[in-house]
């Protein structure tokens, strides 16, 4: 199992693309994984034949876990990039840029055995054994004696998912002091919520003094029961993560949503005029979204609080403007990030946008391409939605939704100042913002600024 990011300690093998006995080519996708950050296809490190599958679809295992064996024709050790060989009778290759290694002596142990990016301990036989045989019981987290924090177990436990670390911070819980049910005692979300519900962390949590003394209600009543004839399906890994992230965001930020209508008639005219030449010169399809992103970037530069994060009593004003674009997938939702959008032209934004969206749908994104967003745009308008109230993508403080762009009858001023009805291309924009740090007046001024930028877009702005 590869380590898809520094904070990722485990992943779910969501689908095998090859079966035992199948021949594979080097860099050919052989299985799919889901982690806290990204869904991705994992390629074969070299050509060979799948001889054994050790981890089944749907199983969640720790990084470094061997998931399959690949028989190769190699009998010497080879180090990729150096061409060095030894007489050890094994091969070693690094592939995919994810810290993955494979080792074998006629067969490759660990088609996806990852090396910890921070320099973890040497791979022992016990670490390379299939994790499918190790299924810890989901016992509630318990407090443990403090250690020096240098053991492998300590590092894995404290490197829990971002979601778990965020909940722990909100309730004043020290993850390192807990023993969870995950790999090497790693604390899972279920462990942490069980620990909080037990009352052990009540005094430290920010909701300890809530009205009535009940704190925060994590149970939300009894779960629904299936009726005869109902179909029950488990959530996919991605859907479960989306569910957790949305609930945490609603609990973290003071959500407020404002709306505004934007006239796209000028941009529609510019786009219609420039589209042919633009597509011929860049090879990219010109849509409305690059104009929107460019206008949002200018709005963020005018209102930097929209590009911030909250850290306790501090506000972090992000220097780069990294725009996350929500991409709807058949199996869920993912938000790839256009890094440093303030440095890109409309053509550059278009290239980045189309590339990220295409690779998101093909499961070709790397973990770094869905991280470090500072502001998110979601576009439910492509499905005909007029407007929405999106949930903030933590740890950001704002998210903008774009409604469907369509022609509408509008009252405008004629040449002589009289009122007249005209056909205009319009859309509703909404922005959900964190009222802890953004006042309604500021959010509305930001929306008005973006509206004006789009409606007065320069004729030579493509």
Determine Rg (CA atoms, Å): 26 Å
Mean pLDDT over the residues: 77
Number of domains: 3
Number of helices: 9
Supply the helix-strand structural class.
alpha+beta
Low-confidence spans:
75-140, 143-152, 202-219
Number of strands: 25
* CATH topology name of the largest domain: Chloramphenicol Acetyltransferase
Specify the CATH architecture of the largest domain.
Answer: 2-Layer Sandwich
Shape: globular
* Main sheet properties: 7 strands, mixed
* CATH 4th-level superfamily of the largest domain: Chloramphenicol acetyltransferase-like domain
Strand content: 25-35%
Helix content: 10-25%
Describe this structure in words.
Strand 8 and strand 9 (85-86) form a beta hairpin. This protein folds into 3 domains: 10-132, OB fold (Dihydrolipoamide Acetyltransferase, E2P) (Beta Barrel), CATH 2.40.50; 142-219 and 237-241, no CATH class; 254-455, 2-Layer Sandwich (Chloramphenicol Acetyltransferase), CATH 3.30.559.10. Mean pLDDT is 77; it is low at 75-140, 143-152 and 202-219. With 462 residues, it is α+β, with helices and mostly antiparallel strands. Helix 7 packs across helix 8 (346-361) and helix 7 packs across helix 9. Strands 15, 18, 21, 22, 23, 24 and 25 form a 7-stranded mixed sheet that branches. The protein has a 6-stranded antiparallel sheet with strand order 2-5-7-12-11-10, with no helix packed on it. It has 9 helices and 25 strands.
């Amino acid at each position: 199992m590869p380590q898809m990011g520094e904070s990722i300690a485990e992943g779910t093998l969501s689908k095998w693309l090859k079966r035992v006995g199948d021949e594979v080519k080097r860099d050919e996708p052989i299985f799919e994984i889901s982690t806290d950050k990204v869904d991705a296809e994992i390629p074969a490190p070299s050509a060979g034949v799948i001889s054994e599958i050790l981890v089944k679809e749907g199983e969640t295992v720790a990084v470094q876990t061997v998931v399959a064996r690949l028989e190769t024709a190699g009998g010497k050790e080879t180090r990729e990039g150096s061409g060095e060989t030894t007489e050890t009778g094994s091969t070693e290759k690094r592939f995919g840029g994810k810290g993955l290694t494979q080792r074998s002596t006629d067969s490759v142990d660990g088609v996806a055995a990852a090396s910890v990016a921070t320099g973890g301990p040497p791979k022992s036989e016990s670490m390379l054994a299939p994790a499918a045989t190790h299924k810890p019981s989901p016992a509630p987290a318990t407090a443990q004696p403090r250690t020096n924090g240098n053991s492998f177990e300590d590092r894995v436990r404290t490197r829990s998912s971002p979601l778990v670390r965020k909940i722990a911070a909100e309730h004043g819980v020290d993850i390192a002091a807990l023993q969870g049910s995950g790999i090497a005692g790693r604390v899972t979300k279920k462990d942490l919520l069980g620990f909080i519900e037990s009352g052990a962390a009540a005094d430290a949590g920010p909701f300890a003094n809530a009205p009535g003394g009940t704190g925060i209600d994590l149970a939300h009543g009894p779960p629904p029961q299936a009726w005869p004839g109902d179909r029950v399906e488990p959530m996919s890994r991605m859907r479960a993560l989306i569910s957790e992230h949305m609930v945490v965001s609603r609990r973290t930020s003071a959500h407020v949503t404002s709306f505004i209508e934007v006239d796209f008639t000028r941009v529609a005219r510019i786009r219609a005029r420039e589209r042919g030449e633009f597509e011929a010169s860049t090879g990219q399809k010109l849509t409305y979204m690059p104009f929107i992103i460019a206008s949002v970037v200018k709005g963020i530069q005018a209102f930097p609080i929209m590009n911030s994060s909250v850290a306790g009593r501090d506000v972090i004003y992000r220097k780069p403007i990294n725009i996350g674009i929500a991409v709807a997938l058949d199996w869920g939702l993912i938000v790839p990030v256009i890094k440093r959008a303030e440095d890109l032209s409309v053509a550059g934004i278009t290239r980045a946008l189309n590339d990220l969206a295409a690779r998101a749908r093909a499961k070709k994104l790397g973990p770094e391409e869905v991280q470090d967003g500072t502001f998110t745009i979601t576009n439910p308008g492509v499905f005909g939605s007029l407007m929405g109230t999106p949930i903030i993508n933590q740890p950001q403080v704002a998210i903008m939704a774009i409604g469907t762009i369509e022609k509408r009858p509008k009252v405008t001023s004629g040449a002589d100042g009289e009122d007249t009805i005209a056909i205009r291309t319009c859309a509703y924009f909404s922005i959900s913002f964190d009222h802890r740090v953004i006042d309604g007046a500021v959010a509305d001024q930001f929306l008005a600024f973006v509206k004006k930028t789009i409606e007065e877009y320069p004729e030579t702005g493509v």
